[in-house]
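hey so i finally got around to running both of the ones u sent me last week. sorry it took forever, my laptop kept dying halfway thru and i had to restart like 3 times lol. anyway pasting them below in the order u listed, first the sequence line then the structure token line for each. didnt double check formatting much so if smth looks off just lmk and ill redo it

first one:
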Amino acid sequence: MRVLIDTNVVLDFLQEREPFVGNAARLFERIDAGEVEGFIAATTITNIYYIVRRVAGRAVAQDAITQVLSDLTICTVDLAVLEQALELNFEDFEDAVQYACAVVYGVDAIVTRDASGFINAEIPVVLPEAIEPINGTE
């Protein structure tokens, strides 16, 4: 299964935000096990760095980015993606960019805790805990 992971879920995992860290950690465990292929928009990297650096400092932010780069496929954000995002007319442009990346990269679902940002999405939008196990295993 190929999933685009919203910024909030990545931050839940990296910052161990309760009560969400458990579900986010299980998703990343499945990515590490090769059961799920995780994607994020390139713009998510800069957002993560900014937020983590502000809360925990530069060194922690750099470690977080290193971890994300090793675990996830980074979706290119180019002119075509940005133009597609604008055409979507989403309330939140960040969500529109992520959705456009999801379309371009042909993911099976978008994993988020804020489904309201993806109203009328043609790609399934699911909570981290809703990702189904492969081959019936947990």
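and the second one:
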Amino acid sequence: MSEQTDKILQDAESAMKKSILHLETELTRIRAGKANPSMLDGVMVEYYGNPTPVNQVANVSLLDARTITIQPWEKNMLAPIERAIMAANIGITPQNDGVQIRLFLPPLTEERRKELFKKATAEGEAEK
């Protein structure tokens, strides 16, 4: 093959790999019944006047399969983190106990599963 054809194939392969990586990232953000710390990747907290990702101001971990715990490094960050989660509209209500924030994921209903299927399908089509 000619150099020009090789370059076109390399560019296409690179674009396809980027598209697949982006799709994987978007699919991890879909709340599908099992807790995943990456669900909070898009949540930005106001930290001393600067928008900062939650995982940079707190320890985000899993307590069990349906519970995410967020323990801020500074106690005064509980309220801003709670507000940021509510503002992000991820469908989870935070529960603050004064030391950490817990996010409980409710079990999926049939209606919610159909909605998630539609959303995942739309993400896949967008990446094509």
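quick thing i noticed on the 2nd:
DSSP finds three helices and six strands in the chain.
anyway thats it, ttyl
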